[in-house]
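It is worth pausing here to work through a concrete case rather than discussing structure prediction in the abstract. The textbook approach is simple: state the sequence, then state the predicted structure, then interpret. We follow exactly that order.
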Amino acid sequence: MSTDDRISGRPLVFLSSSWEDLKNHRAACIKVMLGLRDVLSIDWIGMEGFGADDKSPKEYCLTQVRRSRLYVGIFGSRYGTSTKKADTPPVSWNTEKHSKLRYPA
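Step two, the predicted structure:
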């Protein structure tokens, strides 16, 4: 998985969901994206590729959303987690940011 589309030259697809309840769905989506990687000339980014960073988790996540050309949201019965510094959970950050950028969701 490329974490920088400027290096790979491929547009990024951002995968978003809550984690615990949608692990199997994420795995299935990743499998499809990996299968389509060369067909559609895309790369993907999701929490599986996140590492340590100087930014807050929210800012890091939003940076990745901004870099992405397509947002894939998997929604289930859980809404994600909230932090003491934020009133909204990460899934909401991603969805709101991508809709403001007017990319396909």
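Step three, interpretation. Residues 1-6 have pLDDT under 50 and may be disordered. Strands lie at 12-16, 43-45, 70-73.
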